[in-house]
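Re: [ENG-882] Designed sequences occasionally contain unexpected residues at chain ends

Forwarding the minimal case from QA. Structure tokens:
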């Protein structure tokens, strides 16, 4: 039995799948659930994007997309479709990556999930590197507290780290005990990156708490 399970966040550039192309075309963030891969190699996809960024136009014009449906949910639009294009995440699943969230940005994608053991992690990185640019953004052992948090809130590891670190350092206090720049330095990222992760994480928490 393998004792160690790792939570990982992988950065990907050059994916070229329909969701990545739509995020780039509209300069929007497209978030997706792990795709359900069919026996014929096609994938059933559920994703969402800001309602004002009409990614439906790009997806509908993409020859690799079939049966596109859009449903509005507040300021987000939820899309369901069949994708004929193989996404790099399928390669990662084949070698042991268990995806939880997929986030496509104009400049690249982030896949968050888990792997069982460091040997599997090495295989995941090698598999991704064969097709796209890949970087390991974050990795840490899955423990009781991590598992409980992941089960309750749908946050990327980076978003959770931003919120936890900000809370621990007193960023949410009145008055604030630290500045955004100080929290960013603790995380090892730029101030802009920290604030973006914080805002996205808080928005995800509020959506899940209050609907």
């Amino acid at each position: 039995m393998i004792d160690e399970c790792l939570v990982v966040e992988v950065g990907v550039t050059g994916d070229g799948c329909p969701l990545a192309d739509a995020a780039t075309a509209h300069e929007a963030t497209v978030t997706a659930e792990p795709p359900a891969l069919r026996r014929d190699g096609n994938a059933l996809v559920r994703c969402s994007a800001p309602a004002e960024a009409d990614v439906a136009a790009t997806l509908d014009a993409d020859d690799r997309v079939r049966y596109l449906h859009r449903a509005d949910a507040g300021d987000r639009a939820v899309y369901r479709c069949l994708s004929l294009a193989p996404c790099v995440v399928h390669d990662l699943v084949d070698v042991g990556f268990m995806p939880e969230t997929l986030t496509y940005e104009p400049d690249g994608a982030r896949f968050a999930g888990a792997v069982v053991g460091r040997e599997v992690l090495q295989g995941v990185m090698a598999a991704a590197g064969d097709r796209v640019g890949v970087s390991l953004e974050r990795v840490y052992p899955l423990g009781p507290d991590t598992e409980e948090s992941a089960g309750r809130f749908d946050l990327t590891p980076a978003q959770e780290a931003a919120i936890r670190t900000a809370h621990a350092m007193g960023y949410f206090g009145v008055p604030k005990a630290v500045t955004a720049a100080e929290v960013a330095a603790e995380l090892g990222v730029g101030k802009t990156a920290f604030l973006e992760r914080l805002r996205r994480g808080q928005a995800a928490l509020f959506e899940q708490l209050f609907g």
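QA comment: On inspection the terminal residues look reasonable. Residues 191-210 form the longest helix (20 residues). Proposing we downgrade this to a documentation issue.
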